[in-house]
Write a structure and sequence with these properties.
Blueprint lengths: L3 H34 L1 E5 L2 H5 L7 E2 H4 L5 E5 L6 E5 L2 E5 L5 E3 L5 E2 L2 E4 L5 E3 L7 H11 L6 E17 L10 H4 L4 E17 L10 E8 L5 E19 L1 E5 L4 H4 L12
Parallel strand pairs: 1-14
Antiparallel strand pairs: 1-8, 2-7, 3-4, 3-8, 4-5, 5-6, 9-13, 10-11, 10-13, 11-12, 12-13
Length: about 260
């Protein structure tokens, strides 16, 4: 028969084993979360958007599970999307900003859970081209992905948003001919952007892609031009890339053989 001391020893040993199992499980969970967060999630292909595939089946409610920072658009190309600090915003063709409803869908979007790896503080005003060159010179590698957050005050920004399109959808080169453009002066806010390596062209947009949202959440859009005033740049280095392809006839039948480097 077991003695009291033996039962106590066995009980203590079982407790230690259980504690180790819990800690191990928790460690794996944290590792999985970190791996999941250090990745880019993209809805559809950039080339599909270029060719006029403006219907996606991924809801914004689902998209939020994959990131808190990003950019994109909406079904029918109805406005520009900016995601910052877990809130997703829509800038419509009149320049109005609203919080995106979970039931809305996207034909193209890019998101990540933003976690800055480095911070840059320019000492002089930069044009958009100068800003891109400044960031480009600071990137440590050319074959990985970067999420870029530019926060602060801007002397000038020119942004745009696109009107909702009607079927049969035109290619994006035609759709943006009737885009709305907005001149924003002496405004505080954040540029949400990405830099993608050249080999990704067609799958995603290679190079830089910037959207903007003002601090007061009243202005924004796809960035066409800018001049910085007093900014801080945060860069997230990312190595994983995941794509979710639409399950619809429009995407299945699209001609996606072309290569593309520029667009929306």
């Amino acid at each position: 028969m077991e003695t009291k001391a033996e039962r106590t020893k066995a009980f203590n040993l079982a407790g230690i084993i259980l504690a180790i199992m819990i800690v191990t499980f928790h460690s794996h969970s944290l590792a999985e979360q970190e791996d999941h967060h250090d990745s880019i999630f993209q809805a559809s292909l950039f080339e599909a958007l270029i060719e006029g595939v403006y219907e996606g089946d991924l809801t914004y409610g689902e998209l939020k599970k994959h990131g808190d920072f990003g950019l994109g658009t909406f079904n029918s190309l109805d406005g520009e999307m900016v995601a910052l600090d877990g809130v997703f915003y829509r800038i419509d063709s009149d320049g109005n900003v609203s919080v995106v409803e979970d039931t809305m869908k996207s034909p193209f979007a890019i998101v990540t859970f933003f976690d800055s790896n480095e911070k840059l503080v320019p000492t002089e005003a930069l044009s958009c081209e100068g800003l891109k060159e400044y960031i480009d010179d600071a990137l440590p590698a050319r074959n990985i992905f970067y999420a870029i957050k530019v926060s602060g005050e801007f002397e000038h920004l020119r942004t745009r948003s696109v009107h909702a399109q009607e079927k049969p959808y035109p290619p994006i080169s035609e759709a943006i001919k009737d885009q709305s453009e907005f001149d924003l002066k002496n405004i505080k806010g954040t540029i949400v952007g990405y830099w993608m390596p050249m080999y990704i062209g067609g799958v995603s947009q290679s190079g830089f892609h910037f959207h903007f949202i003002s601090d007061d959440k009243k202005s924004g859009g796809h960035v066409l031009e800018c001049k910085t005033k007093d900014i801080v740049i945060d860069i997230d280095h990312i190595r994983d890339f995941e794509i979710d392809l639409p399950e619809n006839e429009e995407f299945n039948n699209a001609d996606l053989k072309k290569e593309s480097g520029k667009g929306k």
